[in-house]
């Protein structure tokens, strides 16, 4: 474990979670220099809920960039595709959407229906192969989104290490994930993200409108939420610096106070990040 002096509050908050029995992992790196600013057990692999959807978006963006797919390709939704949880398409009447629109609602609301429909078009094997081609070995999207996971299903939607995830987001920010066109498509989709309840709760941004600079801050991020799991990966840029960060907390979600303790620790890390970039 290591932390620069100005990350001591976040380090202490995660340490307290670990003392209380949670599994914690975190990493933050300076975008320009690559210097590690903060790390806590960042090489361990933990469940990351919806974070693995970013790997799907990378594959979709790569196919749009190389011309093998069109953003206007229309994908249909069937009754069997309807699933609860994250997202808006389950609440809409429209039975089909263009491919790029599906990617946008995955980026903005981590939409489960759109995720599964894109996965049906792409295939999990292609997502895995793309990740491996980028050098990603510890982070993976393991399955489609399911209402319930049975004994024959993957135990988690996705897993990852914060070291690898922060590295991946830094590459996206620099236009190095596959290529610049692919990277910037993914960053644009993720910049629509409306979930600013975890690390990003400290940044003071409008959850529904932060695609432009606000008080010299820009952000793109992805969150993963499930019972006892909170994870966020993102890139925050400010007037002084830019950072790529990843934080995962796995905890016994036994009562609201335990959950709020985990959320509070993640917000504390966000405050440290904000002070570093601003």
TrEMBL record:
Q: What name appears for this protein in its UniProt entry?
A: Serine hydrolase
One of the Pfam families matching this protein, by short name: Beta-lactamase2
> Where would I find the Beta-lactamase class A catalytic domain in this sequence?
28-249
Q: Enumerate the UniProt keywords alphabetically.
A: Hydrolase
The record lists the organism as Naasia lichenicola
Question: What molecular function terms (GO) are annotated for this protein?
Answer: beta-lactamase activity
The record ties this protein, via InterPro entries, to: Beta-lactam/transpept-like, Beta-lactam_cat, Beta-lactam_class-A
| Superkingdom, natural source | Bacteria
Q: GO annotations under biological process?
A: beta-lactam antibiotic catabolic process; response to antibiotic
| SUPFAM superfamilies noted in UniProt | beta-lactamase/transpeptidase-like
